[in-house]
Backbone:
C-alpha cells in the first residue's frame, strides 16, 4: 500500500511538472502561476471577479467596454486594492477615447492591454508598448495573426465560434490547427468552448501558451452577476447558447452567441417587421438598420445586473453546459488544473510488461 501511494504521489508530481512545462511560456508572459486568462465579459469582468481570478493564480482581465477614461481609472485602482497579482485591461478598438484609455492604463501601471473589437493599428500597439505594457489582440486567421506580429503585438488570442458574445465563423479546434503550428513568434492563447482541464491540456500540447476562459467564471461566487442570471447559466445546456441570425443581408447583424430567450425571439420578429416596412417604403434602409442595431442597447446590463433574463442579453459560450453550480474562483481553477493533471497521469507509463510500456487509460 505504501509503495502504491508513493507511486501515485510520484505520478501526480510528474503530471504537475509536465503541466508547468507546457504552459511555462504563457505563465512567464502573464507573470502568473497558471496560464489561464479570464475572458473580458462586460458587466461581469469587474474588480471582484478579476481580482479573484488573479489571486487564484490565473490572470484576470478587466472589461472596459464603453467606460469613459475616469471610470476606468477608478476600476483599475479598485482592482489593485483587491489583488497584488498581475491583471490586464481589455479595451475596445472602436472606443472614441481609445488613446486616452491607453494613457489611463499607463498612468495606473497596467502591465497588459488587450485590444478587442477590431485590429489595432500600429500606432495603437506602439502607444501601448511605449507606456510600458504588453499589447495583446485577437487573431481570427493565420494571415491576420502574422500581420499583427509584424506590427509589434506581443501576444495573440485565437477565439473560436464556440465562445460567448461577439463571435467569428470558425471553431477553436480549427483555428488551433491553422494557427498554432505556424505562428510561434509570440505566445498564443486559445479561447472559445473551453470548460475542462483536458481541453486546456489539448491546446497546450498543440502549442498554445495558455487559454482564455470566460463562461466558466460567470457563476463564480465572486461574480457580481445577478442570481437569476447565474441560475439560467446553471440550467442551460450547450445547445441553448445560440448565435444570432441575420435574416436579410441588406441589414447586417454582427453574430453574437447568447442563451435563447424571449428577447432573442423578439429580435427575430423585429428584423422581419423592419424588412417589411422598408420594402413598403415606410422607412429607409438606414433607419431600419439603426433600429435593428439599437435593439440590444443596454440589454446585457439589464440581464447581468438587473436580472432581466427574459428580455435581456444572456451572452454565453457553448461551454455553458459545463457550468453546473456556483463555485469560488479558486475552486474552479483548482478543478481545471486537477483535470489536466489527471489526464496526464492517465497517460503515464505505469509498468513494464514484456519490455513494453503499458499506458494507463489505453485500451
Residues:
Amino acid at each position: 500500500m505504501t509503495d502504491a501511494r508513493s507511486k501515485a504521489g510520484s505520478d501526480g508530481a510528474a503530471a504537475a511538472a509536465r503541466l508547468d512545462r507546457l504552459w511555462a511560456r504563457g505563465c512567464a508572459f502573464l507573470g502568473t502561476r497558471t496560464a489561464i486568462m479570464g475572458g473580458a465579459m462586460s458587466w461581469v469582468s469587474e474588480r471582484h471577479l478579476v481580482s479573484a481570478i488573479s489571486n487564484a493564480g490565473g490572470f484576470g482581465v478587466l472589461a472596459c467596454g464603453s467606460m469613459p477614461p475616469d471610470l476606468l481609472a477608478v476600476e483599475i485602482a479598485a482592482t489593485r486594492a483587491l489583488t497584488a497579482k498581475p491583471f490586464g485591461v481589455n479595451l475596445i478598438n472602436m472606443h472614441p477615447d481609445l488613446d486616452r484609455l491607453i494613457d489611463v492604463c499607463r498612468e495606473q501601471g497596467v502591465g497588459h492591454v488587450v485590444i478587442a473589437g477590431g485590429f489595432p493599428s500600429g500606432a495603437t500597439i506602439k502607444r501601448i508598448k511605449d507606456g510600458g505594457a504588453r499589447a495583446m489582440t485577437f487573431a481570427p486567421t493565420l494571415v491576420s495573426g502574422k500581420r499583427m506580429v509584424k506590427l509589434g503585438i506581443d501576444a495573440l488570442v485565437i477565439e473560436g465560434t464556440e465562445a460567448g458574445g461577439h463571435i467569428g465563423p470558425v471553431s477553436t479546434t480549427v483555428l488551433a490547427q491553422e494557427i498554432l503550428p505556424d505562428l510561434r513568434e509570440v505566445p498564443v492563447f486559445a479561447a472559445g468552448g473551453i470548460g475542462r482541464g483536458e481541453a486546456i491540456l489539448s491546446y497546450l500540447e498543440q502549442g498554445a501558451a495558455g487559454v482564455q476562459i470566460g463562461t466558466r467564471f460567470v457563476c463564480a461566487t465572486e461574480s457580481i452577476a445577478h442570481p437569476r442570471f447565474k441560475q439560467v447559466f446553471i440550467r442551460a445546456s450547450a445547445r441553448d447558447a445560440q448565435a444570432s441570425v441575420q435574416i436579410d443581408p441588406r441589414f447586417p447583424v454582427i453574430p453574437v452567441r447568447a442563451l435563447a430567450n424571449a428577447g432573442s425571439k423578439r429580435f427575430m420578429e423585429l428584423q422581419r417587421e423592419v424588412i417589411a416596412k422598408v420594402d413598403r417604403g415606410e422607412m429607409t434602409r438606414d433607419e431600419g438598420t439603426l433600429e435593428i442595431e439599437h435593439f440590444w442597447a443596454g440589454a446585457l446590463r439589464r440581464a447581468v445586473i438587473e436580472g432581466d433574463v427574459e428580455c435581456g442579453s444572456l451572452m454565453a459560450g457553448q461551454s455553458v453546459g459545463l457550468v453546473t453550480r456556483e463555485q469560488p474562483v479558486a475552486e474552479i481553477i483548482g478543478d481545471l488544473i486537477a483535470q489536466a493533471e489527471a489526464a496526464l497521469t492517465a497517460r503515464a507509463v505505469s509498468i513494464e510488461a514484456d519490455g513494453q510500456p503499458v499506458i494507463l487509460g489505453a485500451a
About this structure: Residues 349-354, 358-363 have pLDDT under 50 and may be disordered. Residues 27 and 35 are 5 Å apart (CA to CA). Residues 2-22 form the longest helix (21 residues).
